[in-house]
Amino acid sequence: MTIYSGPVFEMARQQFQTIADHLDIREDERDRLLYPKRAIAVSCPIHRDDGSMAVFQGYRVQHHLSIGATKGGVRFAPTVDIGEVAALAVWMSWKCALAGLPYGGAKGGVTVNPLELSVRELEALSRRYMQEMIPFVGPHIDIMAPDMGTNEQVMAWFMDTYSVHHGSTVNEIVTGKPVSSGGTVGRREATGRGVVHLAMRAAERLNIRPTNATAVVQGFGNVGSISALELAGRGVRVVGASDHTACLHDPRGLPVADLERHVARTGGLAGFSSEMAADPKEFLTLPCDILVPAATERVIDESVAARLRCRVLAEGANGPTTPAADAVLAERGDEVFVVPDILCNAGGVVVSYFEWVQDLQQLFWEEDEVNRRLMHILDRSFEQVTSRAARDKVSQRTAAMAIGVEKVQRAKQTRGLFP
């Protein structure tokens, strides 16, 4: 029996078992590698603007601390539960290990629709959540970051709440903060920039020239919008963009900068154009060279995988492709070059690591230095994954996860089991 359930955690468990079989990991070692070290569930009561009281459920899962502190985002979303948060923490562990970062994976969340909260209510909930987490987090224990439904402002509230409790400013307790509060330049754009950098590396291998390429981006939040802008900046024609409010498609190309301004003004893509409206059920299977799923988990199932018409699948979201879909893609051979999520969207946690290091040292870098170091780590990881995939004749996902799991396994074996 386990407290971790639901389709997202089951997906993470299936992926791990596949890798454990591939690496011949002993059965009695598997549970220690898969199941989180610690899970916290809290109630977060706040006063609503109308004078009533509401209670929201919050979670934080710390997967392992064998390499260093845990690291991971906090999402505010209606779908958040302990199983989803645990799965995201597990994936973050493999991601940090693959990138060579001194972290274990963590994730947190509150079950709430942040769009239904006023700014005052959002601040109250953010501060209450951090207040409840103070006994379990710290700059060398667990460092939070933004995720779906949270942003730089929420991180500033987190940091301030922890600092008030501590008695002095502790910038390094969270990353993804505003630059004015100890954040780093380049953090907000890091995930999207990394997605596009690696998509271009994959396109280069397929002899696809950016100026002749097309792209479809699902999700137009931070990751998706930056990805679309970066693609357009490299000469790629972005023919599709979607979010939770609308799907847009134009084979001639979308005005990405105009889309971003519209979303900043209205909160979503809805209302930008009725002529460009596309069928959400067919959106992911639109013909393109580069497909960037940058929304939520499990959007590409076996049915969608069989109908994909992209050459490069650059996974900006966490867990967008199910294990059943991976099997279909494997049957399709070299038709689709997959840049798996734990590699493709690692730019965010890499630059979060840079922010943490800068906060600890109180020595800050220029943005070109941040980007140079980011691309070096992403290129190194890309070469490791593609070389491992070719050597072992396995998929890019299997190669990426095998590298991550191996590193965590070695760390646990070296440290031993106490007592």
Describe the structure.
It comes from Rhizosaccharibacter radicis. This is Glutamate dehydrogenase. Belongs to the Glu/Leu/Phe/Val dehydrogenases family. With 419 residues, the protein is an alpha/beta fold. It has two domains: 179 residues, 3-Layer(aba) Sandwich (Rossmann fold), CATH 3.40.50.10860; 158 residues, 3-Layer(aba) Sandwich (Rossmann fold). Helix content is 47%, strand content 16%. The chain is built from 14 helices and eleven strands. The strands form two sheets. The protein has a six-stranded mixed β-sheet. A five-stranded mixed β-sheet has the order 1-2-4-3-5. Helix 1 runs parallel beside helix 3, helix 3 packs across helix 14 and helix 13 packs across helix 14. The two termini are 24 Å apart. 53% of the residues are buried.
